[in-house]
Amino acid sequence: MIRRIVVFSGAGMSAESGLKTFRDSGGLWETHRIEDVATPEAWARNPELVLNFYNQRFLQLKKALPNHAHLALVKLESCFEVEIITQNVDDLHERAGSSRVLHLHGELVKCRSSIYENDIYPMPELGLRQGDCCRMGHQLRPHIVWFGEAVPAMYDAELIAAQADLLLVIGTSLNVYPAAGLIYRVQTGANVIVVDPGELSISAVKGIQHYKAKASDVLPKLVDDLLKLV
Hints:
This protein is of the alpha/beta class. The protein has helices at residues 11-15, 34-37, 40-45, 47-63, 68-76, 92-96, 154-162, 215-228; strands at 4-9, 28-29, 32-33, 81-86, 101-103, 106-113, 120-122, 140-144, 166-170, 191-195, 208-211.
């Protein structure tokens, strides 16, 4: 019997709302190398470039809208206990209406102290600038987990995944670790469904139902079918 559904969402969901993903463009984000805009070293070397880059992404996000896949997931909450774990840094799950969302890699709509990682603030309306400081006087930085940094929410995500009756993986082919390792945390007997057009890199895991399609093409009907089980 399915009572608790854990959703693990990746970049494919955001891409369907028009948000760019770096892995679809040769390791580039809007012509920027990852090493230049998404590492602690980049921040130390050229904070203005990093701030400008994330400001552009933040402003792009404000124009994006949740797609049919985001909206379909909200319907599950009427009959199931639903928790979403997402690799995405946008707030489209929340804007669609999902009530329990854990962000593994941070959030574009927030910023934090460059010294105290738990000192977090809403992102200013027009983004961050050099000279914007936390209450202790330190420069604010994007509330993003950069490459080379630890993933603080990973422990909580593993606990959530371990309690799933159904793990619903959406918009990721499970290539990015440590996040992709969540699929190995589900309990024996739990159902695993993957919705992603790519080839999976987890062939050793048995019993996965894989829909090779975009999330918005599959999720509305899949959600309706799950609701009929109640």
